[in-house]
Automatic annotation (TrEMBL):
The lineage of its organism: Eukaryota, Fungi, Dikarya, Basidiomycota, Agaricomycotina. Residues 1-12 have a biased composition (Basic residues). Residues 1-27, 347-384 are annotated as: Disordered. Residues 359-375 have a biased composition (Acidic residues). This is TPR-like protein. SUPFAM superfamilies: TPR-like (SSF48452). Coiled coil: none annotated.
Length: 384
């Protein structure tokens, strides 16, 4: 017999190599990976866990601007407003470690956090616009046209929002600025700048319509609202080009102020197709039907072939739904609920009751249905 051949055995790696490989497996994730995970958690509204990942980044890179901004967002969303303000301020010069160029988002967040100081809010909005305008010029010279166009559109939207933010501060009756003789001219200049940046921007057109209404120029306001609506009114409910729901609700309020009931209801139908539990949409629809009912009573009892009672019943149904959703969701807007209850009381005084839960079918309807079935049965017998 021949000698048995020994089985080949793989050589063991040197101890140093093995330790190195194990060390690689246990190595820290990259800063980019940690930031990506933190951003994902912020999108999911898990701010506490996001904060842990952000802390890991800042321990390794204390001046990382992206991590600081995420930290500020997490603090803002969890109600730590003073801490958020300090975090965003750390991104501005002359703070040591502040990035260059300054991120415009830091100014935008600080503007929102300056409720008690409207002048400071205006300063931050203006600084953000200046930085974004420089970025916009850079994107216009970019080589990658597709990417540049996408970034350019987002930058334009952000600029417009910052300009409108300033308009809202000048027009807010809670601030003394609205009584400043320069307020109207400043609003005009800001909105002119916004429409130069993005001539079709719906928020800018709506804001200009609001200014025209405050100037008692309703026909001009109507024209701007119709132009704003025309840019998206034919889009499907799930089309990403639709304005945010908040913007569409604002448009609805302006339509109602001008007694443009049909477009108001059409906008609300689109909102409810996306979210049928939107409290403010149900409120505005109930308010719209209430106003239509009042107008019908003034005009002899009908409006668009509907009686005032029918319109009032629709109003009551919408308002009852709004009240139920408001309670179930613990909605924070108490003035909405107060107005809803006030309108329901008025409808109750007029003898307007909500529709029956069964859809309004009564015994007579059931009997008629049975009669039709009986007639159909007899017809079948005769045909046989």
């Amino acid at each position: 017999m021949g000698r048995t051949r020994a089985k080949n055995r793989k050589a063991r790696p040197p101890i140093d190599d093995l330790a190195e490989r194990q060390g690689e497996k246990k190595s820290e994730p990259t800063i980019e990976a940690l930031l990506e995970k933190a951003q994902e958690l912020i999108v999911q509204c898990d701010y506490d866990l996001a904060g842990r990942f952000i802390d890991r980044v800042l321990k390794r890179a204390p001046d990382n601007a992206e991590a600081k901004e995420m930290l500020g967002v997490a603090q803002l969303e969890t109600g730590l407003l003073d801490a958020a303000k300090q975090t965003f301020l750390s991104l501005l010069p002359p703070n040591p470690g502040a990035p260059s160029p300054t991120p415009p988002s830091a100014h935008l967040y600080l503007a929102q956090l300056s409720d008690s100081d409207p002048q400071m809010a205006l300063v931050h909005y203006s600084a953000a616009v200046d930085i974004l305008m420089l970025q916009l010029k850079g994107k216009e010279r970019a080589v990658d046209i597709t990417l540049a166009n996408s970034d350019e559109e987002e930058t334009k939207r952000t600029i417009v929002r910052a300009l409108i933010g300033q308009v809202e501060i000048w027009m807010d009756p809670a601030y003394d600025l609205c009584f400043d003789p320069a307020a109207e001219a400043n609003c005009e200049e800001l909105l002119k700048a916004a429409l130069q940046v993005d001539p079709e921007n719906t928020e800018a057109l709506q804001s200009l319509a609001s200014v025209r209404m405050s100037q008692q120029r309703p026909e001009e306001a109507k024209g701007f609202l119709e132009k704003a609506w025309s840019t998206w009114q034919d889009l499907e409910a799930d089309d990403p080009r639709l304005p945010p729901i908040a913007s569409r609700l604002s448009l609805t309020k302006l339509f109602l102020e001008l007694s443009l009931f049909t477009p108001a209801l059409m906008v609300l139908q689109g909102i409810m197709a996306s979210d049928d539990e939107e409290v403010e949409a149900w409120y505005l629809e109930g308010w719209c039907f209430f106003l239509m009912s009042e107008q019908a009573r003034e005009q002899g009892g009908k409006l668009d072939e509907l009686t005032w009672e029918e319109l009032a019943r629709d109003s009551r149904d919408c308002l009852e739904t709004c009240k139920m959703l408001h309670v179930n969701q613990g909605h924070p807007d108490l003035p909405i609920r107060e107005h809803v209850e006030e309108l329901i009381s008025k409808l109750e005084e007029l003898g307007v009751k909500p529709s029956p839960e069964d859809g309004g079918q009564d015994d007579d309807d059931d009997e008629n249905w049975e009669d039709e079935e009986s007639d159909s049965s007899n017809s079948d017998v005769e045909m046989s």
